[in-house]
Specification:
heterodimer; A: about 150 residues; mainly alpha; 2 domains; 4 helices; flat; B: about 500 residues; two-stranded antiparallel sheet; transmembrane (chain B); transmembrane helix (chain B)
Chain lengths: ~150, ~500
């Protein structure tokens, strides 16, 4: 399959970049054929570890001793249980982190393009972002009042 | 000249803005109010917001269709009609909640109201967008809020179970919808439904026919879950029974209406060419009709041996989803009109039935059908109201339900689908048994106690609204039919901007 042209239509820029990839002369059968690559990789992924372990078993000498069969932990003697529990509070902090993470990701390109946007759209571009930040701020107040920020 | 944000008339979004602002305001108020303050006025405040939103929605009827940002938001008669229905349903749910949801039972009483508003906002977006992404965001806003609402009764085991089942199965259904949508995007390179409308035909004719149908069936699978049709109905009885009764009525009425708006818009705009190419009649229609028939048979027969009122109404809801699927499958001439009429009829009669269910649940402390025993002696008015709702649900003449079913039946007969019409009539007769079972309880069984049942003002008002709607739509259906018939339904299917974007 050949990708012949990728174009971005200017009228769509306002609603987010829209890229259409058009294919020429591709029939439905060929489209299915693309998935054969996925199938091959899937099978390879299954076969590789199985083959590696099997071949390893054939080649390596087998003389276990007490010290050798200890779980390998980078040369340090293993300690503690293999099942590690995290405090549920981490989960709340992670959620809260995601809110601000998304906000940063969203604010950064906006800030970079601010001058251009300002010339095109006017002050509304600021108002728009303030609406977004306001809603996130309500989220923060919610978390604050529900005592998510306190470590108890 | 390109349109920028400020060139759009944002006042068309007034209903959505009102609901979003009310939800934000209530969430802040809930945080800053003292914990023991009675938050029941939240429901009244929300009701006022909903009424304001209804006002702004209704006042736009008869005006030219309008779109914002490439159809991501769109007001046409289709959107306005469904939005009015959704908002009316939400209004009635708030009325029921103002009385039926107590702070001593549900600790986070404030959260209940603004989650319901958020769900309503999602439902509104689902009715008035023509962009896959926006529609999906609306759907998820509705779904996620509903998951929490189903489990808002945290101390009750059944409520937890309902929320858990709902979130797991709902998540799977959403995944299927999204997977179907990804195929649509892959084939057309657009999320705008009207661009999809044009490019999907090309895709179909250039050898991607299997993918076009695959995308449609993947989405229908997820939609089948959202409208509660068989065989995707397994969540319905458990969730309807476990959720607090006002939430159940919301799921039955508002979720179903919004989901039908979404299905009609996506399927009819995107895939109508299949009908013109005769593929719909050969491939899609049989599948949809089998779903419809299955829903009617499974819903109505499973309801026969239910002992819990809400569970019975849940199976009845599955059966009604089956009836509602018939016009969509056959694509008759009055597809929009009959679907919409049925949805309004379903709204009034189901809200009424759930109000009575909530009254009895509070009175008896359980949701068993035996709570209806001797109701005619304890509260003749409530018993009479319930009789009207049940007769309408069963489809007995001079009620809204009868005319709705008749309208749908005409749809099936005029398009020569006699077997589905046969199943519809047959299962309706079966449904008489369990609907009349409740009537028998009310009139011929001795009551558990001789005390008269007090019906407070708010549920009484709901019952009156329900009776007026049910009987009104049944006795003079012409009014509603004329009003519905005058709407420009087809405007939902045609793009506003001439020509597709891009070469």
């Amino acid at each position: 399959m050949r990708c012949t042209d990728i174009y971005i239509h200017p009228s769509l820029l306002g609603q987010g970049l829209m890229v259409r990839i058009s294919f020429d002369g591709v029939t439905g059968m060929e489209y299915w054929a693309n998935y054969s690559m996925t199938a091959i990789f899937f099978l390879l992924g299954l076969a590789l570890p199985a083959a590696a372990f099997t071949v390893g078993r054939w080649l390596r000498p087998h003389h276990p001793s007490a010290a050798k069969i200890i779980t390998y932990e980078s040369g340090v003697d293993p300690f503690g249980d293999s099942r590690v529990q995290f405090h549920v509070r981490y989960y709340l902090f992670a959620l809260l982190f995601v809110i601000f993470d998304v906000e940063t990701v969203f604010l950064y390109p906006w800030a970079v393009a601010y001058d251009t946007l300002r010339q095109d759209v006017g002050l509304f571009v600021l108002v728009e972002m303030l609406i977004f930040v306001l809603f996130l701020f309500i989220g923060l107040i919610y978390a604050w009042k529900k005592k998510v920020l306190e470590w108890k | 000249m390109e349109k920028v944000l400020l060139d759009y008339d944002w006042t068309v979004m007034a209903p959505e803005i009102i609901i979003a602002a009310a939800a934000a305001l209530l969430s802040l108020a809930d945080l800053f109010l003292r914990e023991n303050t009675d938050r029941r006025f939240f429901s009244w405040f929300s009701l006022a917001a909903v009424i304001a939103a209804i006002f702004f929605t209704v006042s736009r009827f008869g005006q030219q269709p309008y779109e914002i940002l490439g159809d991501t938001y769109r007001v046409d008669d289709f959107a306005l009609a469904f939005k009015t229905a959704v908002l009316s349903g939400v209004g009635l749910v708030f009325l029921l909640s103002a009385w039926g949801v107590r702070q001593e039972e549900i600790r986070f009483r404030g959260e209940y109201d603004y989650l319901l508003l958020a769900a309503a906002l999602g439902a509104m977006i689902m009715t008035s967008s023509a962009d896959l992404i926006t529609l999906f965001v609306g759907l998820e806003l509705l779904s996620i809020s509903s998951y929490i609402l189903a489990g808002i009764h945290r101390e009750r085991y059944a409520s937890n179970e309902a929320a858990w089942k709902y979130v797991v199965q709902g998540g799977v259904a959403s995944a299927f919808i999204l997977y179907g949508m990804s195929f649509v995007y892959g084939l057309t390179g657009s999320t705008n439904l009207y661009t999809i409308q044009q490019r999907l035909v090309e895709a179909y004719q250039t050898g991607y026919d299997a993918f076009v149908l695959l995308s449609l069936f993947l989405m229908l699978l997820g939609f089948g879950f959202k409208i509660a049709s068989a065989p995707f109905h397994m969540w319905v009885p458990d969730v309807y029974q476990g959720a607090p009764t006002p939430v159940t009525s919301f799921l039955a009425v508002v979720s179903k209406t919004a989901a039908f708006a979404l299905v009609l818009r996506i399927v009819l705009v995107g895939y109508i060419f299949l009908y013109q190419m005769q593929i719909w009649q050969q491939v899609v229609e049989p599948v949809l009709l089998v779903l419809a028939g299955l829903s009617m048979v499974i819903g109505n027969t499973a309801a026969l041996h239910q002992t819990d009122t809400k569970r019975l109404l849940a199976y009845s809801s599955v059966a009604h989803a089956g009836y509602l699927l018939v016009p969509l499958s056959t694509l008759g001439a009055v597809l929009f009109e009959s679907t919409f009429y049925y949805l309004i009829a379903y709204l009034v009669m189901t809200m009424g039935a759930f109000t009575v269910a909530a009254l009895l649940e509070r009175e008896a402390g359980h949701g068993n059908i035996s709570g209806f025993a001797g109701l005619s002696r304890r509260s003749p008015g409530t018993a009479a109201a319930m009789t009207v709702f049940l007769l309408s649900l069963a489809g007995i003449p001079v009620t809204a339900g009868f005319f709705g079913k008749f309208y749908i039946l005409m749809n099936a007969l005029s398009t020569q689908h006699f077997w589905i019409a046969g199943i519809m009539v047959g299962t309706t007769v079966i449904s008489y048994y369990y609907y009349f079972g409740i009537i028998r309880q009310m009139y011929f069984r001795p009551p558990a106690s001789k005390d008269r049942m007090r019906v407070p003002m708010v549920p009484a008002l709901l019952l009156v609204i329900g009776i007026l709607g049910t009987v009104g739509l049944g006795v003079v259906p012409e009014w509603a039919v004329h009003w519905i018939g005058d709407l420009q339904w087809m405007s939902a299917l045609t793009p506003l901007n001439a020509g597709p974007p891009g070469p």
